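Course assignment 3, question 2. Fill in each field.
Student: A.L.
Task: Predict the tertiary structure for the chain below.
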Amino acid sequence: MFSNTGPQGHRARMRARVLAAGAQSLADYEVLEMLLFFGIPRRDTKPLAKALINEFGSLFAVLRAPTRALRAASLSDDAIRALRLVPVMAERLAGAEARARPPLGNWDQLLGYLDLALQGAVSGQFRVLFLDNRNMLLADEAIAEADRDDMTRAIFRRALALHATALIAIQPSDGTDLSDQADARADLVSKMALRSGALSITVHDVMIVGPGNWLSLRQEGRL
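Answer field:
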């Protein structure tokens, strides 16, 4: 009887709440309180969590505080080690997102991405980079060859499915005259530009990319 009273019962309720409502439902002091569970096994950690945030000013400041300061605030080394894992995890997750969804908001970022992404790409295979509103890559996909209307519909249907707000089309080349290949895509480019305005999806550029060389239709004034 009364098995859910005391610190252990409170911890069980907190864990159940995270599973039911998600960790985003927690206040900052509650996030810290639960982190302290790992270093303080049998004690109510809520008062300590609130005191730490009051002393250091924020959850972020607690997590970044020097070890000496945390020890002075009565935290054990086990509790400090638990807190030290959080910034490491955040940095690694941010790095993983950057690798999976690289930013392509400037020429250096775009050309650096293409150097890697187009290695072994099929020459002439039309590809589209779908971007979000921060110019982060959502998807890099080949578009099946068809007439210009079918290809345009396929491109923008996929953009809408991905909630993309912008795109960059890429035509890998075997190194022959890039301008001639741009001319061959003129009808498709025109159709894409027309449809993009109606759907409020920006076509940043259409690029012909060959070994060590590239042609931007935006810079050429063709888009």
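Instructor remarks: The chain has ten helices and five strands. The first helix runs from residue 6 to 21.
Grade: pending
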